[in-house]
Specification:
Helices cover 50% and strands 24% of the residues. By secondary structure, it is an alpha/beta fold. α1 (15-30) links the parallel β1 and β2 (35-45).
C-alpha cells in the first residue's frame, strides 16, 4: 500500500462511540504502516425554514444543538486524552464538522468532499432492531449503504 492508511472515526458522547474510539486507538497502535487517524464529531443542525415564524424556532433549536455539542465535544476530547496515556504512540486529529441535515448524510458528504481516499471508517452501532430501527433510523446502516469505503461497525 502506498501513502498513508487513512482512518476516520465517527464520534458522539455514547458508550458505544467510546468503544469505537478504543478500537481505533488499538488498531492504529498495531499498524506497521504510516497512518492518519481522525476523530470526527458531526454537529447536525436543523435546516433553516423560509417561514418567518419557523425560522426563529429553528434558530433557537440550533443554538441548543450548538450548546449541547460544545459540552459533548469537551467530554469526547477528555476521553481521547485518557486513551493517549494507554496508547502514547498513537497520534490523531479531532475534527468538529457542522452542517444542516442528518448526521449520516453530513458524514457521507464530508467523506466524499474532504477524504475521498479514506481507507477505513469506524462507527459505533446501537444494535437497533425491528421497529426501533425503522423509527429511530440508523446512522451506521445509512453509512454502510452510502459510503464508498470499508466500514468497521463496533457494536455493544
Amino acid at each position: 500500500m502506498e501513502g498513508e492508511y487513512k482512518v476516520l472515526v465517527a464520534t458522539e458522547e455514547t458508550d458505544i462511540s467510546y468503544k469505537a474510539i478504543q478500537y481505533a486507538f488499538d488498531l492504529c497502535s498495531k499498524l506497521k504502516v504510516s497512518y492518519t487517524l481522525k476523530f470526527i464529531y458531526v454537529i447536525a443542525l436543523n435546516p433553516e425554514a423560509n417561514v418567518p415564524f419557523l425560522h426563529n424556532l429553528d434558530r433557537a433549536s440550533n443554538l441548543d444543538i450548538l450548546i449541547e455539542a460544545k459540552e459533548s465535544v469537551t467530554k469526547i476530547k477528555g476521553y481521547l486524552k485518557e486513551n493517549e496515556s494507554h496508547f502514547p504512540d498513537v497520534r490523531y486529529q479531532f475534527i468538529e464538522h457542522q452542517d444542516h441535515g442528518l448526521v449520516g448524510k453530513i458524514l457521507k458528504d464530508y467523506i466524499e468532499n474532504q477524504q475521498p481516499d479514506l481507507n477505513l471508517l469506524i462507527v459505533g452501532s446501537r444494535n437497533l432492531d425491528g421497529l426501533q430501527k425503522i423509527v429511530l433510523s440508523s446512522t451506521s446502516d445509512y453509512l454502510v449503504k452510502n459510503v464508498r469505503c470499508p466500514i468497521t461497525i463496533v457494536k455493544h
